[in-house]
Specification:
Blueprint: H1 8-35, H2 40-48, H3 67-80, H4 82-101, H5 104-115, E1 121-124, E2 140-144, E3 147-158, E4 165-171, E5 181-187, E6 193-195, E7 209-220, E8 224-225, H6 231-267, E9 269-270, E10 273-274, H7 279-307, H8 314-339, H9 350-360, H10 367-385
Parallel strand pairs: 1-4
Antiparallel strand pairs: 2-3, 3-7, 4-5, 5-8, 6-7, 9-10
Helix pairs in contact: 1-3, 3-4, 3-6, 4-5, 4-6, 6-7, 6-8, 6-9, 7-8, 8-9, 8-10
Bound molecules: acetoacetyl-coenzyme A.
Residues 86, 90, 93, 123, 125-126, 132-135, 158, 178, 232-233, 236-237, 239-240, 314, 363-365, 369, 373 line the site of acetoacetyl-coenzyme A.
Length: 386
C-alpha cells in the first residue's frame, strides 16, 4: 500500500476502526446479513470509542476531524460489512445539513448527542417520484402559525426507524420547482411521523431502509434549516460532502474482498500447487489490487482537498464516488471468480460482498448521475475558458 503519510491521530482512528472491524463486524456479519438485524450493538461500540463524532467540531463534542478522518474509519468498517458501515455513515449524511447550514441553536441542540452516539441521524430526500431527480420532491411543508405542517412520504431512507433525528426535504413553494424546497429537522416520536416496513434488500441487509410517513406532522418553525427555498442547495452540498464516504465504502469493500481472495489463493491447491502460483489468478489479483489502490489514492486526495477548505468540489466528489464504487463492483465480482464455486457459496463472505457492492453504484446518486455531474461541470469549465 502507498504510504499516505497519515498523522498520529489518523493512524489511531484507522487502527481503532480496524480493531472494531476485526473483533466485532467480521465475526457478526454473516448472521447480521442472514437475520437482517440492525447492528445497534456495533454502533454503540463505535460510539464508546468516540468514532461517531469524527467529523463534528470539538465545540459540539466531536473529534474535530474532516472528511478524511471520516473516510478512514468508513473504509475500515467497510472491509468487514457495508451494511454496518452505511449505518455508521448515514449519521454524517443526516447531520450534514445541521452542521453545514444549521443555526447555532440547532447545532448546540443536536450535534453533541449525535457526536456521542446518543442519537442517530438520517437524511430524508428520496421519494417514490424523486430518486435521481432530487428536485422532484412532493412532500410539502406549510407554515401554520409557529409550526410547519408536513405531509408526504419518503422512500428507502437509510437508518429509517432507527434514527432519532431526521433532516427532511419538503416543498414550501410549489410554484418554484426545486427552488421551492426547504430543509427541516424532524425528531422521531413527533406526532404524525411514522415509518413504513423495513425493506428487504439484495445486500446490506442489516442496514435499516424504511419509508418515512408524514401525516399532518407539526414541527416548530425553528426546525427550518437556513431559509425557505434553500432545501435543494443544502441537499446538493450535503451530497457533495457525503459522496466521498460512499467511495470509502467502495475502497474498503474492494480491499476486504481482495484480502480474502489472496488468502484463499494461497491456501487453495489445484494442479498440485496453490492457485496463487497460477499466472491467470495472479493477473486477476494484480488488477484488483491496482484498481483498489488507484481508488484509494483518488479518495484520499479528494478528501484532503475538501478538508483544505476549497469551496466547490462537486465534480471531484462525483468522480471519486463513481470510480471507487465501480472498482468495488468489479473487484467483488472477480474475487468471487477467484474462489470459483466456493465463492458462490454463502458459507464464505464473498457472495455477500458482491451483493453488497451493487448498492454502491446506486445510492447517493447512481453512477450515471455522477457521470452527468462530472460532464456538466466539464461543459461549464469549457465555456468559462472561452
Ligand atoms: N452545489 C451547489 N449548487 C448546485 C449543485 C451543487 N452540487 N448542484 C446543482 N446546483 C445548483 C445549480 O447550479 C442550479 O442553480 P441555478 O438554477 O442557479 O443555475 C440548481 O442547483 C439546479 O441544478 P441542476 O439544474 O443541475 O439540477 P437538476 O434538477 O438537473 O439535478 C442532479 C441535478 C445532479 C441530477 C441532482 O438531482 C442529483 O444529485 N440527483 C441524485 C440524487 C441523489 O444523489 N440521491 C441520493 C439520495 S441519498 C442516499 O442515497 C443516501 C443513502 O441511502 C446512503
Amino acid at each position: 500500500m502507498i504510504d499516505y503519510a497519515l498523522t498520529d491521530d489518523q493512524v489511531m482512528i484507522r487502527d481503532l476502526a480496524r480493531k472494531i472491524t476485526e473483533e466485532k463486524i467480521i465475526p457478526a456479519r454473516a448472521e447480521l446479513d442472514e437475520q437482517e438485524v440492525f447492528p445497534s450493538d456495533i454502533l454503540n461500540i463505535m460510539a464508546q470509542s468516540d468514532l461517531m463524532g469524527l467529523y463534528i467540531p470539538e465545540e459540539y463534542g466531536g473529534f474535530g476531524g474532516g472528511v478524511f478522518e471520516f473516510c478512514l474509519a468508513t473504509e475500515e468498517f467497510s472491509k468487514g460489512c457495508i451494511g454496518v458501515s452505511v449505518s455508521f455513515a448515514a449519521n454524517a449524511l443526516g447531520s450534514g445539513p445541521i452542521l453545514m447550514f444549521g443555526s447555532e441553536e440547532q447545532k448546540k441542540k443536536y450535534l453533541p448527542d449525535i457526536a456521542a452516539g446518543k442519537k442517530w441521524a438520517a437524511f430524508g430526500l428520496t421519494e417514490p417520484n424523486a430518486g435521481s431527480d432530487a428536485g422532484g420532491v412532493q412532500t410539502t411543508a406549510v407554515l401554520d402559525g409557529n409550526e410547519y405542517v408536513l405531509n408526504g412520504t419518503k422512500q428507502w431512507i437509510t437508518n429509517g426507524g432507527e434514527a432519532d433525528v431526521y433532516t427532511v426535504v419538503a416543498i414550501t413553494d410549489k410554484n418554484k420547482g426545486s427552488r421551492g424546497a426547504s430543509m427541516f429537522i424532524v425528531e422521531k416520536d413527533t406526532p404524525g411521523f411514522s415509518f413504513g416496513k423495513k425493506e428487504k434488500k439484495m445486500g446490506i441487509r442489516c442496514s435499516a431502509t424504511r419509508e418515512l410517513i408524514f401525516e399532518d406532522c407539526r414541527i416548530p418553525k425553528e426546525n427550518l434549516i437556513g431559509k425557505e427555498g434553500m432545501g435543494f442547495l443544502i441537499t446538493m452540498k450535503n451530497l457533495d460532502k457525503s459522496r466521498p464516504g460512499i467511495a470509502a465504502q467502495g475502497v474498503g469493500l474492494a480491499q476486504g474482498a481482495l484480502d480474502y481472495a489472496v488468502k484463499y489463493s494461497k491456501e487453495r491447491q489445484q494442479f498440485g500447487k496453490p492457485i496463487i502460483a497460477i499466472q491467470a489468478v495472479q493477473f486477476m489479483l494484480a488488477d484488483m489490487a491496482t484498481q483498489t489502490e488507484a481508488a484509494r489514492a483518488l479518495l484520499y486526495s479528494v478528501a484532503r482537498s475538501i478538508d483544505s477548505g476549497i469551496k466547490d468540489y462537486t465534480k471531484e466528489s462525483a468522480m471519486v464516488k463513481l470510480f471507487a464504487t465501480d472498482v468495488a463492483m468489479r473487484v467483488a465480482v472477480d474475487a468471487v471468480q477467484v474462489m470459483g464455486g466456493y465463492g458462490y457459496m454463502r458459507e464464505y463472505p464473498l457472495e455477500k460482498m458482491m451483493r453488497d457492492a451493487k448498492i454502491l453504484q446506486i445510492y447517493e446518486g447512481t453512477n450515471q448521475i455522477q457521470r452527468g455531474v462530472v460532464g456538466s461541470k466539464l461543459v461549464k469549465e469549457a465555456i468559462s475558458r472561452k
